[in-house]
Specification:
- The complex is a heterodimer of chains A (137) and B (113).
- Chain A has helices spanning 14-27, 32-53, 85-93, 96-102, 108-116; strands spanning 2-8, 61-68, 72-79, 119-125, 128-136.
- Chain A has 137 residues and is of the alpha+beta class.
- Chain A has one domain (2-136): 2-Layer Sandwich (Heat Shock Protein 90).
- A five-stranded antiparallel sheet of chain A has the order 1-2-3-5-4.
- In chain A, helix 1 (14-27) runs antiparallel to helix 2 and helix 2 (32-53) packs antiparallel against helix 5 (108-116).
- The radius of gyration of chain A is 15 Å and the shape is globular.
- Chain B has 113 residues and is α/β, with parallel strands linked by helices.
- Chain B has one domain (2-110): Transcription Regulator spoIIAA, CATH 3.30.750.24.
- Chain B has a five-stranded mixed sheet, with helices on both faces.
- In chain B, a hairpin with a 4-residue loop joins strand 1 and strand 2.
- In chain B, helix 1 runs parallel beside helix 2.
- Chain B is globular, with a radius of gyration of 13 Å.
- The chains are: A alpha+beta (137), B alpha/beta (113).
Amino acid sequence: MKSEFTTPCTPSKLADIRRFLYSTLARFKVAEGVKHEIVLAVDEACANAIIHGNNCDISKVLRLEVRKEERQLTVEISDVGVIDNNELDDAMDKSLDELIRERKAGGLGLKLIYSLMDEVNYFARDNTNICSLRKKL
Amino acid sequence: MEIISKLSEDALKISLVGELDANGAINLDRIISKAIADGYYKIAVDCRQLEYISSAGLGVFISYISELKSHNGKFVFYHLRENVESVFNILGLQKVVAITHDFTQAKNQLHEV
């Protein structure tokens, strides 16, 4: 089973992305609790791609592909923005206490993604950035 | 959407309604920044009608924790739905902010600074 969604790179479309995911995951008969975890993780990954990777450039496009295989669900988010791997690493390394002290909140989304999904991969294919998120069902 | 009500000279209630994601976080940031500039350092956050929160929404609160603390203030969250509370728990926020069951407990907590 496969479902696709394409949207301009603007944060105002995040609600549409979540609605697409909820309806797709319901159609794929994914359990309620798992459904919420997947939606939250994908919302975080899309927000990162839209805001940090594409600077909210509405002329750029974000594409989602959701695939359900036997016992796992994969969401691939693709875009043509710029990924800074050092920035990703720095964000992940900060503790909550450090973020509070520095009055910043970057990196929390990545922490959520890694906590909620079983496999997270960032890579490039055909000049496109792919964020692949996998959850065992 | 956020609904603001004054509780006392230095305390405020913010009721969050609907979904708080990276898009809504910008407005929330403006509201909290203005509240602090106006001298409100004790902020009760009513989450009864909050259906969804992402890290960007929580990030706004995190970025003001130190400032409130430096003025003997704090955030107290109450009436959290299960899916919202689970986001707090995954990020460990329950260890650094007060979470209570209802408004009465939240008001008491605000004055226990």
